[in-house]
């Protein structure tokens, strides 16, 4: 069984990562989860998360949310 994460199979991990992030963002901003998901999927942060070479997928929910917040503040 191949357990390596590649650009071709990274998409399998992303929904759970976005789910955690959307819940945190919705709670912080007082918006719905759907609105939070739209914000996340349309962000440059998601582009970085979806790029296997960044290795952001290694991070847990809290660390990912901190990275997201830093990317938003840096814009």
Task: Give a written overview of the molecule.
By secondary structure, the chain is an all-alpha fold. The protein has one domain (11-73). Helices cover 59% and strands 0% of the residues. The longest helix has 16 residues, at 14-29. The protein is globular. The protein starts with 13 loop residues before the first helix and ends with a helix.
Spans where pLDDT lies below 50 across 5 or more residues: none
- The tally of helices reads 4
Proportion of residues in helical segments: 55-70%
Mean pLDDT: 95
Radius of gyration: 12 Å
> What characteristic shape results from the CA principal axes?
globular
Structural descriptors:
75 residues, mainly alpha, 4 helices, 59% helix, 0% strand, globular
Topology summary:
Blueprint: H1 14-29, H2 33-41, H3 44-49, H4 61-73
What is this entry, summarized?
The protein is built from four helices and no strands. The protein is an all-alpha fold and 75 residues long.
